[in-house]
Structures are given as structure tokens and as C-alpha cells.
Recover the amino acids of this structure.
């Protein structure tokens, strides 16, 4: 039982970053640097552009205004939890729901592989 709890906790910790979207219009430097793929220089460039010209309207606006932030880069950062505005944060929360299902599936698979289930029955997780 303890082993099952430990496996579940480890899986939730691993997928925890997918549940929180960071809004580029309200985030500070530390929050931006928390996104995989954004370092100190990129976070500084994002903040300086936002301070100089106001909030970003959408991902296309972010791509145009910040050097080195092309469309593919912004898409990758969105997958890591970057959002543009309240609508982007809501989309990030919806995108986290499938990740939660994957975490449950991975946790069940890990529990089956470890042989921690006492009944010996297979765990079926519906998506």
C-alpha cells in the first residue's frame, strides 16, 4: 500500500508542472524562468517588451514582438505551460486534463508492473 502511494505521489510530482499555466502578461521573471525553454535572457526580453509596449494580445503578437520567439517556439512553450492572457490560461487548464488522464494511466501501469495490486486484476483506465 505504501509503495502504491509512493508511486502515485512521484507521478503526480512529475506531471505537476502541466497543471499550472503561466500567463505571459502577468508573470514575473521567476515565473517565466519556471517554464522549460525560457532562460534568464528570454524572460528579460519578454518582460522588457511587455513593459515598453503593453500586454501581448495573443501568441502571434508575442512571436512578432520578442526576438527569437517564432511560431514553433511559442507552440512548444505553450505545451510547457506558457499562456497568453486569460483565454490562454483557460486553454492551458483544459490541455492539462488529458495530461491528468495520462498520469493516471501511467500510475496504473506502474502499479501493475510493480505487482502492488493484491487482487491480481488488471487496472483498466478509460479515457
Amino acid at each position: 500500500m505504501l509503495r502504491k502511494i509512493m508511486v502515485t505521489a512521484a507521478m503526480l510530482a512529475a506531471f505537476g508542472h502541466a497543471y499550472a499555466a503561466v500567463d505571459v502578461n502577468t508573470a514575473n521573471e521567476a515565473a517565466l524562468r519556471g517554464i522549460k525553454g525560457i532562460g534568464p535572457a528570454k524572460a528579460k526580453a519578454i518582460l522588457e517588451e511587455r513593459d515598453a509596449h503593453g500586454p501581448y494580445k495573443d501568441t502571434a503578437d508575442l512571436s512578432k514582438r520578442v526576438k527569437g520567439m517564432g511560431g514553433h517556439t511559442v507552440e512548444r512553450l505553450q505545451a510547457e505551460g506558457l499562456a497568453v492572457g486569460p483565454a490562454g490560461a483557460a486553454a492551458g487548464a483544459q490541455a492539462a486534463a488529458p495530461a491528468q488522464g495520462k498520469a493516471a494511466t501511467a500510475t496504473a501501469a506502474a502499479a501493475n508492473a510493480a505487482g502492488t495490486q493484491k487482487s491480481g486484476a488488471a487496472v483498466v483506465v478509460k479515457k
Remarks:
- The chain has one domain: 2-114.
- The CA atoms of residues 105 and 125 lie 6 Å apart.
- Residues 92-120 have pLDDT under 50 and may be disordered.
- The domain at 2-114 is CATH 1.10.150.280 (DNA polymerase; domain 1).
